Amino acid sequence: MLNFRYPLALCQASTIKMKASLALALLPLIIASPAPVHKRPKPAPGLGDLAKRAGLKYFGTAIDNVVLDNDDYTDIAFNESEFNQVTPSNGQKWVHIEPKKGVFNYTLGDEIVDPSKDEGQMRRCHNFVWHNQLPDWLTTGNWTKTTLLQVLENHIKHEADYYWGDCYAWDVVNEAFEDNGTYRSDIWLNTIGPSYIEHAFRFARKHTSPGTKLYYNDYGIERVNAKSVAVQAMIKDFQARGVPIDGVGLQSHFTAGRAPLYSDIRAAQQLYTSIGLETALTELDVRIDLPDNANKTAAQARVYADSVRACVDEEGCVGVTVWDFWDPVSWVPESFPGQGNACLWDENFVRKPAYYAVADVLKRGAANGTRWER
Ligand SMILES: *[C@@H]1O[C@H](CO)[C@@H](O)[C@H](O)[C@H]1NC(C)=O
Ligand SMILES: *[C@@H]1O[C@H](CO)[C@@H](O)[C@H](O)[C@H]1NC(C)=O
Ligand SMILES: *[C@@H]1O[C@H](CO)[C@@H](O)[C@H](O)[C@H]1NC(C)=O
Ligand SMILES: *[C@@H]1O[C@H](CO)[C@@H](O)[C@H](O)[C@H]1NC(C)=O
Ligand SMILES: *[C@@H]1O[C@H](CO)[C@@H](O)[C@H](O)[C@H]1NC(C)=O
Ligand SMILES: *[C@@H]1O[C@H](CO)[C@@H](O)[C@H](O)[C@H]1NC(C)=O
Questions:
Q1: Is residue 160 a part of any domain in this protein?
Q2: What is the pLDDT of the chain when averaged over all its residues?
Q3: What is the mean pLDDT of the segment spanning 316-331?
Q4: Domain GH10, which positions (predicted)?
Q5: pLDDT at position 198, please?
Q6: Of 194, 306, 342, 345, which has fewest CB within 10 angstroms of its CB?
C-alpha cells in the first residue's frame, strides 16, 4: 500500500523488505555506495518526547479531517515524537458515526485513528454524549425516556465496540453543565433527566475495553467556580453510588490576557484529584485579539507555559492536548470573530514562541524529576 502521507514509515518498511528479500539484487548498489541510504539524523525531541521525560503520559493534538490531504500538516500531526497522542476533533462525533438510526459509519474516525495506530500514538476518543453535532433523526425524534436511553446505549455499544482497545480514554459526556452550575438544557436532560449522565458512564464501562479511562469533559472548569464545583459534586455522588468515572478533562480554551492563572488551574484540578480522579488539559488553545503583535504573542506563550506547567506540577494530571496545532484549522476565528492565531504553529508551519515556551516547561519538568514513577 502506497501512502504518501507517511514517507518515513514507507522508507522503514521498504528497508526491512529490502533486507529480507532484495539484498542480493541490490548487492552491487550497496557495494557501490558505502553510506547507509536510510540513515537519518537523531530526531530532536518533540513535545511528546519531552512530555514523557517530564512524567506525563502524553502531549497530544486534536486532528480534523479537513486537512488530511495536506502533507505538511500530516507530517507533524502523525509524528509520535511531536504528539504521542491524538484526538479526532470531529470524526467520532455522533452526527458522523450514526448518521441514520442504527446505521454506523466509522470513515471519519478511522481516517485519524488508523494512521495514529500505525505511528504508535495513543488516542483520546471524543465523544459519546454531547448536546451538539447530533444528527437530525435524533434531535427531531419523538422520544420517551425509555426509547432515548435505548438509542444512547446502542450508540455507545457500537462505537465502543468498534474502537475496542484503541482509546486510552473516552470523553463519555461532554459539556453537561451551564456556567452557573445547573445542568445544561438539551435533548438528553429534557427527555431523560440528569440521570442520562450516569447511564452514559455505566454504558461506557459496560461496552468499552477494560482499562479505558472514562472522562467527563467541559470548558470553563479551569478555575474553582460554580461549574467546576458542580462537576465535583456530581462525581462525589457518582462515587457514593458506584457510578464509574475515572477522569475530568479541563478543555482549556483560553484567551491571552484573560486566562486562568497557574494557581487557578492547579486548584481546579485539585477538586478532582483530591477525590481520586485523574485530570487532563484536553483542548488547550490560547486565542489572541487580532491583530496580533509581539506583546500578544509573548503573552500567549506565557499562558501556554503556565497551563502546561499546571499539568506537569499536578500529580494526577496525565497529559495535555492542544485543540489543533495549526492556526488555519483552528475553530477559533469562526467561533470568535476578531480573535485567532490560537495554536502553536503559524500558517507557514513555523513554530511560535508558545511552542518553545511549552518545550521549556516540559524540559524543566523533567529536570525537577518529581514524576518519574509515572
Ligand atoms: C518528528 O518530529 C521530531 C521533533 O520535532 C523531528 O525531530 C523529526 O524529524 C520528525 N520526524 C519526521 C519523520 O518528520
Ligand atoms: C461514510 O462516511 C463517509 C465520510 O463522510 C462518506 O464519504 C461515505 O459515503 C459514507 N458511507 C456511507 C455508506 O454512507
Ligand atoms: C409522540 O409520542 C407519544 C407517545 O408515544 C404519542 O402519544 C404522540 O402522539 C407522539 N407525537 C408525535 C408528534 O408523533
Ligand atoms: C443558569 O444558566 C442558564 C443558562 O444561562 C440559565 O438558563 C438558567 O436560568 C440559570 N439558572 C440559574 C439558577 O441561575
Ligand atoms: C509592548 O509592550 C511594551 C512594554 O510593556 C510597550 O512599551 C509597547 O508599547 C507594547 N507594544 C505594543 C504594540 O503593544
Ligand atoms: C519545577 O520547580 C520549580 C521550583 O520548585 C517550580 O516552581 C516549577 O513549577 C516546577 N515545575 C516545572 C514544570 O517547571
A1: yes
A2: 90
A3: 98
A4: 50-361
A5: 98
A6: 194
Q: What is the CATH number of the domain that holds 263?
A: 3.20.20.80
Give ∠ CA 287-176-341 in degrees, rounded to 5: 10
Report the nearest atom of ligand 6 relative to the CA of 262: 9
The whole-angstrom separation of Cα 175 and Cα 220 is: 10
Count of structural domains within the chain? 2
Give the pLDDT score at 41: 55
d(CA 333, CA 323): 13
Residue 61 main-chain phi, psi, to 5 deg: -140, 150
For ligand 4, is residue 178 a contact (CB within 6 Å)?
yes
| Residue 180 and residue 228 in contact, taking contact as beta carbons nearer than 8 Å | no
Burial class of 42 by CB neighbour count within 10 A (0 to 12, 13 to 18, 19+): exposed
The pick from 66, 107, 112 for probing ligand 2's pocket by mutation, whose C-beta has the most ligand atoms within 8 angstroms, reads 107
End-to-end CA distance of the chain: 37
CA distances from 255 to 177, 263, 281, 321, 362 (A): 21, 17, 15, 16, 22
Q: Is residue 143 part of a domain?
A: yes
Residue 229: phi and psi, rounded to 5, are -70, -35
Q: Alpha-carbon Rg of the chain, whole angstroms?
A: 22
pLDDT tens-digit map of 94-125:
999 999 999 999 999 999 999 999 999 999 99
- Rounded to two decimals, the pTM is 0.88
Would you say residue 250 lies in a domain? Answer: yes
Question: Looking at the chain, how many residues does it have?
Answer: 374
